[in-house]
Amino acid sequence: MIRLSIPLRQALARLTLPVLIAAAFGTMLLGKMDTLLAERARMALADLLTPIWAALREPVGAARDAAEELGHLYALRSENARLREENARLRRWYAAALALQAENAMLRRHLAFLPEAAPAFVTARVVADGGGTYARAVLLAAGSNHGLRKGQVALDDRGLVGRVTEVGARSARVLLATDMNSRIPVILEGSRARAILAGTNGARPRLQHWPADLRPEEGERVVTSAEADAFPAGLPVGAVRWSEAGAPEVELFARLDRLDVVRLFDYGLNGILPPDAVARPESRGRR
Amino acid sequence: MKGRPAPNPSLLRRVDALARAATPMALTVALLVLAAMPDGLPGCVAAVALPCVFFWSVFRPAAMPPPVVFGLGLLQDLLSAAPIGTGVLALLVVHGLAMRWRRFLARQSFLAVWMAFCGFAAGAAALVFVLSVLLAWRELPLVPGLVQFGLTAGLYPPLAHVLIRVHEAMRRAESAP
Q1: How many Å apart are CA A187 and CA A207, to the nearest integer?
Q2: Rounded-to-integer distance, Cα A175 and Cα A211, Å
Q3: Distance, CA of A252 to CA of A240 (rounded, Å)
Q4: Side-chain half-sphere exposure of B60, counting CA atoms within 13 A
Q5: Which of A116, A180, B87, B103 is buried deepest, with most CB atoms within 10 A?
């Protein structure tokens, strides 16, 4: 180290600050004149510090996660209270359902009600959509060899899909409820009013011929009706939605745009079938 | 009077003294790097630098000479998005004023020092704002400056709490034989 006399050193020390302040102004002007230089310096520094930040990210992230967990724990309390309340409500409903079931059983005994036999069904894979005479129809990889016959009702896991219209030995065609040619007798579950569900080739078939004094309610459940002996009563179809044009439509429960497999129920009904079926009625015993 | 020359300080002792002298700067640099973590708070860098520089300028000026302040300011400006040089100038001015009034400030209570620091922080924020406006030569929103001031003033107590511990530990080590 260079040895300096004490007064000189003191003078230098006193000078440092003003010189550095001037240098700060210089830096400012330099940064203003050459923005690229500042950018390069920033990038170089960031490159230098990135490994440090990367190493720090782990513990900092862990701490942040822990804080988040704490927040979740706090939210758990209110969530728990809500669930408890909901559980109590559902328990009441459960009790009500049990009571109704018991009452129903008792009433049936009194009426000598004949229960319906559980319908037999086969499950078939959907292999193709469209094709054939209809715009909205699917082809199944099962036919009369597997016990399929015309007029059977097709459902997916949520609700009604359509009816079997053509049956080959190894394949069958199902006319979807959305096809223009589809007419399904339905009941509005809330008001028990009868109506016809008519396909439009669109996603939502339209309700027709509902009673003039009963307006279908938005969101009302629609189930099949046993009228005309084509469907059993009470299969879930969809919910009423009023279109923007003011027509009552039905949003189907079944997801017709993504059919993978359908269940085909044989209710033993021989109601309205396509004309060729009328010309050549099939024998009931053949299935 | 001619006494014996002082014994040559051993290497360990010299390393120790060097480490002690470098601690404030190293601590401040570490805090700056930590505050500049990419997913941290954006205004944190400047809010961390000012309390450190102020504290060490008042309580241990030997460890915070102007060149170090200049370097810290440069680091702060590079780490934050502020125009380069503004932070340097603000830190140097705060350092100079704190050095001038340190005899008075060092005797005050913690609360009084904090209040004084709030004044320094407000002045620094105003200085940075004016410099930014001058450099950009257009009107800039006032809110970031106010947020900066609030953050700086609010960060002083927790930072000073830690720094006081460090300072005391260093003083104990120095007074030990």
Answers
A1: 10
A2: 27
A3: 9
A4: 21
A5: B87
Closest C-alpha to A19, from B136, B55, B69, B24: B69
pLDDT of residue A116: 67
The shortest CB-CB distance from A27 to any of B34, B84, B99 is to: B84
Which residues have a Cβ under 8 Å from the Cβ of A253 and sit 6 or more positions away? A158, A159, A160, A236, A237, A238, A239
Report how far apart, in Å, the C-alpha atoms of A120 and of each of A264, A286, B99 are: 8, 15, 95
Look at residue B78 and give its three-state secondary structure: helix
**Residue with tokens 């009941």, as numbered in its chain:** A187
Residue A1 above 80 pLDDT?
no
- From B127, B147, B169, B154, select the one nearest B24 (Cα to Cα): B169
A142–chain B nearest CA distance, Å: 59
Lowest mean pLDDT among A33-37, A69-73, A164-168: A33-37
DSSP string, B91-146: HHHHHHHHHHTHHHHTTS-HHHHHHHHHHHHHHHHHHHHHHHHHHHTS---SHHHH
Q: Which two tokens stand for residue A33?
A: 């004149």
Nearest-angstrom CA–CA distance, A116 and B14: 100
Residue at A18: amino acid letter: P
Beta strand A248-252 pairing with A193-198 = unpaired
pLDDT of residue B1: 46
Closest chain A residue to B95, measured at CA: A17
For residue B43, pLDDT over 80 is answered with no
What is each CA distance from A100 to A94, A105, A266, in whole angstroms? 10, 8, 29
Q: Are A270 and A278 in contact (CB under 8 A)?
A: no
Summarised one tens digit per residue, pLDDT across range B87-140 is 888 888 988 888 888 888 888 888 888 898 899 899 988 888 888 888 888 888
What are the two backbone dihedrals, phi and then psi, of residue A233, each rounded to the nearest 5 degrees?
Answer: -80, 145
Q: Exposed/middle/buried for A160, CB within 10 Å: 0-12, 13-18, 19+? A: buried
Burial call A218-238: b when 16+ CB within 10 Å, e when fewer = eebbbbbbbeeebbbeebbbb
Contacts of B96 in chain A (CB under 8 A): 17, 21
Helix axis angle, B143-175 to B110-136, nearest 10°: 130
Q: Number of H helices and number of E strands within chain B?
A: 7, 0
**Complex ipTM:** 0.77
Contacts (Cβ under 8 Å, ≥6 apart) of A46: none
Residue A112 has pLDDT above 80, yes or no: no
pLDDT value at A89 more than 90: yes
Whether B85 and A60 lie within 8 Å, measured CB to CB: no
Question: Which residue of A27, A33, A65, A68 to mutate against B (max B Cβ within 10 Å)?
Answer: A27
